[in-house]
Structures are given as C-alpha cells and as structure tokens.
C-alpha cells in the first residue's frame, strides 16, 4: 500500500533528508531509504522535487510518498550456519568462514542472506532487497557471531546501538610476529586505499577507528593469539590496524605476509573470529551476550602451536 504524507514546515534550517529522517524515525525509515525516496522524486517541496541537501524554510509544504518495499527476488538456499538464539525480532548466529554475508558483485548465490531466507522466510526490509536484515557484517573468511534483524523495528534499534557504540564486539585473532607488551590501543583513521579500491588503508582523512588488543597466548613460531575489542566498526578494521603494527592477522591474503609455518598449521584463511557480541534486546531491553567458540580450523592451528611448546 502506498502511503502519502502532507505537512508544513514550522521551523526551517534543516537539510531535507535530516528533517525527514527525524520525522519518520518511529516508522523505521532509515536516512538511506529517505535519500532513495528523494532521488526517486517521491519527496516534493512546494510541489518540486529537490535534492537531499536542500535547506528547508519555515512554511514549506512537503509531500512524501512512500511506496511499499519491493519483495525480495532472492531465491532461498540451504546455507549452513549455527543458530545461537532466535525470537520474533532477531536471529543470533555463528557465520562459517568462506560464506559471504549478502549478495554483491561476484557473489550472487549461496550467501548468508540466501540461507537466512531459507531458514525463516522473512527479514527486515530496511536495508533493501539485497541486504535484508543485515545490521552489521563479517568479511567472507572471518568466522563468528552475528545478529540479524527479522523485523524493521528490531533493525532500527540494533542499527542505533551500533551507531552509538553501545554494542560490545570482541574478536580473537592469531597474528604474525613477536609483539612487544601485553596489551595496547590502536587509534588510526581508516579510509579507502588510494590505488587499490577493494582495500582499506590508514589515512589522515579517514574515519576514526579504534582497536584495543590483549595477548592471550604466545607461541614459539613467533605467532600470538590476541583478544581484540572494537570501539568502532570500520571495514577491515582489525586487519588494517594489526598490519599497521607489523603484526598482520595470520593467513590474511590482502594485508598479511607469507609464513612457511602456515601450511604446517593448516592455515588457509585469515585467522580472525568474532568471539563475543553483546547488545540490548530491541523489544525487551534485556542485556544479551553471545559467545561463539573458535572455528575448528583455528582450534587445530592453536593445538599444533601448543604441541610445539616454548615461546
């Protein structure tokens, strides 16, 4: 059903998209969805379609037409994952390594989203047809715990918690090189690599990125198991930060380095695992905390390192 809203601006001074994001917050419309409506000519100011950055004036008449979200045309597929918790609002799961979270260039089938649609049939529509229910992501070869929204209400709440840094995100990683010290904090801004557009890099003009690390175990081969807490959630954050410290994640094909012991340890992907995720339940407000045990390939590598003994 198409919904149309008509109203008059009482106080000016705000951007069009900012005003509408605030106005329709309770309806679960994200700013990206609102910008999409503006680009599509679904928002009129005094009968005229204008850009998202247009500054509103007192007395402006707004007409907002909200068409229904198109149903997803993705075909559900059986994709294996482990469910830790599920209710009417959300699913908490363990993503296996090697699984892409949502469809993108080169990955049109067998993604986690395809598996979720097969599992439960319906997800939040806020993020559009290709990313239904997806509030946050893990890289293809990163394993671990994720939360997915089944309703728009849950999606909006969870997205706000991530944005306000109210979600606890703890990872474990096997890194290369002998670290100095037992813990540390990396605060280096991250942006798109100036040459390689699929990579991220440390950049002065990048977005704030903060990673806290702590050594859990050291090994004779010059590797170490770390616990990493994220204050921010930038693309490839841990991988870029640890590489910047000259201690890249073991097995990382993009930011790492080759090490002869990787083959002996059976390391074929980046040894990075989302270990713990804690947040408030969108509907009940209950504090929830979930832990995903290390994936078997990382456990095997650690066991082989421990058998070698010594530091």
**Average pLDDT metric:** 92
- How much of the sequence lies in strands comes to 25-35%
Question: What profile does the largest beta sheet have?
Answer: 9 strands, mixed
Q: Please count the beta strands (DSSP E, at least 2 residues each).
A: 15
Task: Give the name of the CATH superfamily of the largest domain.
Answer: Pseudouridine synthase
Q: From the 3D coordinates, which CATH architecture of the largest domain would you assign?
A: 2-Layer Sandwich
Distance between the terminal alpha carbons, to the nearest Å? 65 Å
Low-confidence stretches: none
Derived from helix and strand composition plus strand pairing, the structural class reads alpha+beta
Helices, by number, come to: 7
Order of helices and strands: EHHEEEEEHEHEEEEEEHHEEH
- CATH topology descriptor of the largest domain: Pseudouridine synthase
The structural domain count equals 2
State Rg. 22 Å
Structure description:
The chain has 311 residues and is of the alpha+beta class. The chain has 2 domains: 3-66, Structural Genomics Hypothetical 15.5 Kd Protein In mrcA-pckA Intergenic Region, Chain A (Roll); 82-308, 2-Layer Sandwich (Pseudouridine synthase), CATH 3.30.2350. It has 7 helices and 15 strands. The strands form 3 sheets. Strands 5, 6, 7, 8, 9, 12, 13, 14 and 15 form a 9-stranded mixed sheet that branches. It has a 4-stranded antiparallel sheet with strand order 1-4-2-3. A hairpin with a 2-residue loop joins strand 2 and strand 3. The N and C termini lie far apart (65 Å).
């Amino acid at each position: 059903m198409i919904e149309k809203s008509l109203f008059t601006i009482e106080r000016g001074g705000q951007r069009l998209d900012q005003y509408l994001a605030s106005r329709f917050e309770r309806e679960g419309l994200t700013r990206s969805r609102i910008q999409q409506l503006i680009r599509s000519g679904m928002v009129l100011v005094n009968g005229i379609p204008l850009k998202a950055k247009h500054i509103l004036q007192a007395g402006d008449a707004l007409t907002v037409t909200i068409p229904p979200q198109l149903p997803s045309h993705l075909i559900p597929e059986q994709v294996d994952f482990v469910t830790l918790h599920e209710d009417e609002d959300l699913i908490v799961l363990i993503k296996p390594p090697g699984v892409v979270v949502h469809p993108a260039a080169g990955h049109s089938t067998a993604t986690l989203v395809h598996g979720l649609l097969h599992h439960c049939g319906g997800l939040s529509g806020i993020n559009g047809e290709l990313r239904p229910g997806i509030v946050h992501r893990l890289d293809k070869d990163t394993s671990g715990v994720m939360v997915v929204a089944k309703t728009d209400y849950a999606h909006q709440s969870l997205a706000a918690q991530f944005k306000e840094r109210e979600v606890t995100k703890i990872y474990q990683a096997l890194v290369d090189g002998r670290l100095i010290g037992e813990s540390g904090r990396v605060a280096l801004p991250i942006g798109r690599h100036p040459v390689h557009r699929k990579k991220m890099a440390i950049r002065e003009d990048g977005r704030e990125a903060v990673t806290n690390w702590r050594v859990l175990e050291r090994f004779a081969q010059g590797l170490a198991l770390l616990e990493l807490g994220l204050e921010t959630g930038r693309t490839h954050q841990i991988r870029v930060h640890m590489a910047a410290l000259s201690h890249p994640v073991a097995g990382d094909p993009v930011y790492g380095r080759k090490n002869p012991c990787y083959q002996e340890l059976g390391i074929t992907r980046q040894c990075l695992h989302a270990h713990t995720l804690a947040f408030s339940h969108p509907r009940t407000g209950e504090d929830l905390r979930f832990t995903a045990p290390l994936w078997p390939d990382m456990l095997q590598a650690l066991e082989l390192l421990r058998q070698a003994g010594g530091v």
